[in-house]
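The methods section describes the discrete structure representation at length, but only in general terms. What matters is that the chain and its backbone geometry are given together, residue for residue. Nothing conveys this as quickly as seeing an actual entry. For illustration, here is how one protein appears when written out as sequence plus structure tokens:
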Amino acid sequence: MLDKLAEFVIFGFAPLIVGALVMPTQSRAEEKVIAGEVVYRERIALPPNAVLTVQLVDETPTGAPGTIIGQQTIANAGQVPIKFEVSFDPIVIRPGTKYALEASITVDHALWFENDERYQLEPLTAGPQTLTLKMVSKSGDQSMLKKSISVEPPAGIFDTIWLAEDIEGRGVIDDAQSTFKVSSDGSVSGRGGCNSYFGKAAVEGNSIKVEGVGSTFMACAPALMDQEKKLFSALEKAASFRIDEGKLYLADNEGRDVLRFASQG
């Protein structure tokens, strides 16, 4: 009798136990990413401790804050344009629900910039996004914000001859006059230390992109030619600019200063 019972347990229930062990569990869907950049139009340089937060939220019918679907927080955000990538689980995306991106920049927990329009999108099919933020003054003390505003000469960056004081953090040769000028039509001109050069610049807000740099073909001392080469390379890396106490700074995509100029008028 006992042998029959043991046989029933072993051969009757074992398949159920085995089946339970090998039953696959539900797996989390592969995360999706919404990428893009954050910009603003004010000619203001962010301090090193600026924090960018970008959120993917669902929109409620009442306009109240919705559920956060995905978020990225970037400390030491650097200078605009600031790249972002918000990851989210596609399983939580519901048909018929509206979704939007929201972004803000804070400094010492004080709000400096935020989006003032809704950036609606379809999370599962959205391409690269550009979020344009607006400066706000919601904090009680705006002294730091005011200090960060560039002190610009009357002509700003345009139609001013700028003399290079530093290239890629390595200084310049005192006798070499490396200059930079952007005309209001976007044309670039100057001297590289040996040759005259030319190009085009696209300037929007405090963003700048220098392209098509060409020069004459005069040969000079190796040190001058080397400085000229570094100047051209740094100009092509420039992504943003600021003017502070009469100095023009060009920074790369990571917010690192690659060029510093003084105004020659």
Remarks:
- Residues 8-27, 146-155 have pLDDT under 50 and may be disordered.
- Helices lie at 2-22, 143-148, 222-237.
- The longest helix spans residues 2-22.
- DSSP finds three helices and 16 strands in the chain.
